[in-house]
């Protein structure tokens, strides 16, 4: 169980340090997060600050180093700090996948892989790492997370998250279209809103490119914008996808979550010799999270679908 006071304790340490680094050294807040994490892990303040500031931050760091925090407490605190840093530079919060979506992806993977005790999960557009680490922290299995991103600021924030939560080194600073020779049990990602460029649509290209990085029978769970099925060239893409994957389902997310275009969760399964077709695809819609009763009913309907279409298939295998 996550304790809010523990979350606040970590956030206060991060925030105090980031503000001091900004005020005295003009270090941008987001850079300050990564520097503060390095200080926490080393147990000392490396920056050339005023002696009284250095002493104060060192005391704050030592106070939290003696506490055994849960990974989710660390993630939530760092997410709050990152959101504050985004606000400083007017970067949209939409660049961070909301926890509610991460928990829904966790639920889906739990149902898709009921027998697995461990999963290797790749996010080829990892960003700051919030989606990947929400799933890694909440999935009732051992998770080996791997992320790829070519934005240096996002990469450093994700790296700080990985380090603070003591996950093995699994981050790669490179273009996602150069990441090859990896086999994941599942691929998850949150696609940015995109427009076709030179006849190519970014989400289509990612799904196609990373198919070899997924084991046969593995699942691709992607948060896709609502125009995903309408962009030019979708007929050719659908034909290609059907040759590589079987479509497991589509879960429509609440419109109230998004300021612009809505999103859905697309679930694909990589084809393979031992992959059997499902009886029918999952089509679900999540109502507003402001209505917990309606959300619970939607989850119950999805749970029933998984029992009928996935668990029975697992038993037959």
Name the descriptors.
317 residues; alpha/beta; DNA polymerase, domain 1; Rossmann fold; 2 domains; globular
List the helices and strands and how they pair.
Layout: H1 4-25, H2 29-42, H3 51-65, H4 71-88, H5 99-112, E1 118-123, H6 130-138, E2 142-149, H7 152-164, E3 171-173, E4 184-190, H8 202-209, E5 214-225, H9 234-244, E6 245-252, E7 263-270, E8 282-285, H10 292-316
Helix pairs in contact: 1-2, 1-3, 1-4, 2-7, 4-6, 5-6
Beta-strand residue fraction: 15-25%
Main β-sheet: number of strands, strand sense, barrel status? 8 strands, mixed
Q: Which word captures the global form?
A: globular
In the CATH hierarchy, the third-tier topology of the largest domain is known as Rossmann fold
Oligomer: single chain
CATH class of the largest domain: Alpha Beta
CATH architecture of the largest domain: 3-Layer(aba) Sandwich
The tally of domains stands at 2
Question: Helix segment count?
Answer: 10
Overall radius of gyration: 21 Å
**Helix-strand sequence:** HHHHHEHEHEEHEHEEEH
Average pLDDT, all residues: 93
Secondary structure tally: strands: 8
Widest beta sheet: strand line-up: 3-2-1-4-5-7-6-8
State the share of residues found in helices, binned by percent: 40-55%
Secondary-structure content class: alpha/beta
Unreliable residue stretches: none
Under CATH, the homologous superfamily of the largest domain reads: Vaccinia Virus protein VP39
Distance between the termini: 35 Å
